[in-house]
């Protein structure tokens, strides 16, 4: 079994009605998903 550690960004945000909220993202995973998507496209 493999384990991975990723940095996650957690930033304060607001709901549309003005209530406090939080936004979380993982830039490393976003890039990896984009690269996998591009690699899986058929070659013309």
Structural descriptors:
44 residues; 30% helix; flat
Describe the structure concisely for a colleague:
With 44 residues, this protein is an alpha+beta fold. Helix content is 30%, strand content 27%. The protein has one domain (9-39).
Write up this protein.
This protein is α+β, with helices and mostly antiparallel strands and 44 residues long. It has one domain (9-39). Helices cover 30% and strands 27% of the residues. It is built from one helix and two strands. It has one helix at residues 27-39, and strands at 9-14, 20-25. It has a two-stranded antiparallel ribbon. The longest helix is centred in the C-terminal third of the chain and has 13 residues, at 27-39. The relative contact order is 0.19. The mean pLDDT is 92.
Q: Would you report the number of β strands?
A: 2
Strand fraction: 25-35%
The helix/strand order is EEH
Strand order of the largest sheet: 1-2
Helix content estimate:
25-40%
Tertiary shape = flat
Radius of gyration: 16 Å
What's the main sheet like?
2 strands, antiparallel
Class by alpha and beta content: alpha+beta
Distance between the termini: 37 Å
Number of domains: 1
The protein's oligomeric status is single chain
Flag low-confidence runs: none
